[in-house]
Amino acid sequence: MRYQSTRGTAPELDFRDVTLAGLARDGGLYVPVEWPRFTPEQIADLAGLSYVETAVRVMAPFVAGSLSEDELRDLCTRAYGRFSHDAVTPLVQLDHRHFLLELFHGPTLAFKDVALQLLGLLFEKFLTGTDRHLTIVGATSGDTGSAAIDAVAGREKIDIFMLHPKGRVSDVQRRQMTTVLAPNVHNIAIEGSFDDAQALVKAMFNDADFSGRFHVTAVNSINWARLMAQVVYYFYAAVRLGAPAREVAFSVPTGNFGDVFAGYVAAKMGLPVAKLIVATNVNDILHRALSSGDYSAGTVTPTAAPSMDIQVSSNFERLLFDLAARDGAALGEQMRGFEASRAMRLTNAQQQGAAALFASDRIEPDEMARAMAWACSNTNQVLDPHTAIGLAAARRADLAPHVPVVTLATAHPAKFDDAVERATGIRPTLPPRVGDLFEREERYDVLPATFEAITGFIAERGTPKS
């Protein structure tokens, strides 16, 4: 399997090099040169398989040439052996057509664990026997940071520098990052928004001096391996609801577009996806883009669903590239225009292509709270704010009545206990395996959201190329 950049000028790479690189050197994102395609018979054969065996079959085409099937199986067994539920991502039925796909049974209680537990092992595998030392630079709106830190803490040949917006993540999210005191872990609270943090990360990748001094890579969903691992649970859920003989819709609470783009990849691979519902909060750039073609960034509004408080969705570029006949030069020009003006109109081809598979909705705070209250009262399920936004969009989506709808449950409700208690009257508690979180020592640095401050901090603590 070979990978190409969405902006057309970076060299093609194999899976190993794409994983270690993260962002393409031309500023683009890597995607497979072509999508692997499963037959209905191959999809039907996934029925009854464990999550690990499903993962091996779904991901095998993407890692071809870099990992054998046995090596991939070993990595998946180790990654998902740390989850607290034997199904890894279990389905829960809410009513006659609505289901939750619980993605929060990993060590940091969020869907990011599904990909990042594997990514940490991939880094370790690909670094073994080399003299290369990775410098991971990431930005988090809450859950990516803790999942990435858990996955690489204490690992040799890796340093991780994780940026989060000061005061804009929940206390649990912050502490899951800042109480990991491994010497290779560096937490940075920036005085700015998640979009500021994400822009700084991209600037470091694109700065020739900085990227020339360090082997920089990414754990954000700009790293293709992240998205590849997330494709698996779309197959796992759909097969249990009747695929390939039956179409399934998915509602995805979305900020950076990575999780829902994984659903798009599953559809391109042949999974019968009736619709992908992009559920946003009031930070609704994706809803505006998909409903009217207006991809224009505004000011981030802090909400009770902080992982969705984003105005620039990095992975949207992958979709636009695929919908525009994979013309890297044209897409590069389009994205550079957006980066300069923070405003962009989707082309007719992009709008029409997206409309064939995607729907979108903007969920107001009171609608989110009502979804949490409904789930608690009618299904005995306590939802976090992000999942509630997905469920609210799912329940009012215009779909054929025979199509089951799966809402991705992206985080454990105890990560957002204040918001859950306001909506339901119930204050969820952390599982015993992380129950002492608020007794642990914290360690992090507060820095201004400037390129000079962040790169200077990393230069003092990182390991440069030998």
Automatic annotation (TrEMBL):
It is an enzyme of class 4 (lyase). Pfam families: PALP (PF00291), THR4_C (PF24857), Thr_synth_N (PF14821). One of its GO terms (molecular function) is threonine synthase activity. Keywords: Amino-acid biosynthesis, Lyase, Pyridoxal phosphate, Threonine biosynthesis. Residues 2-80 form the Threonine synthase N-terminal domain. It catalyses: O-phospho-L-homoserine + H2O = L-threonine + phosphate. Residues 87-346 form the Tryptophan synthase beta chain-like PALP domain. InterPro entries: Ser/Thr_deHydtase_PyrdxlP-BS, Thr_synth_N, Thr_synth_N_sf, Thr_synthase-like, Threonine_Synthase, TrpB-like_PALP, TrpB-like_PALP_sf. Pathway: Amino-acid biosynthesis; L-threonine biosynthesis; L-threonine from L-aspartate: step 5/5. Its cofactor is pyridoxal 5'-phosphate. Its EC number is 4.2.3.1. Belongs to the threonine synthase family. This is Threonine synthase. It comes from Sphingomonas plantiphila. The lineage of its organism: Bacteria, Pseudomonadati, Pseudomonadota, Alphaproteobacteria, Sphingomonadales. The gene is thrC.
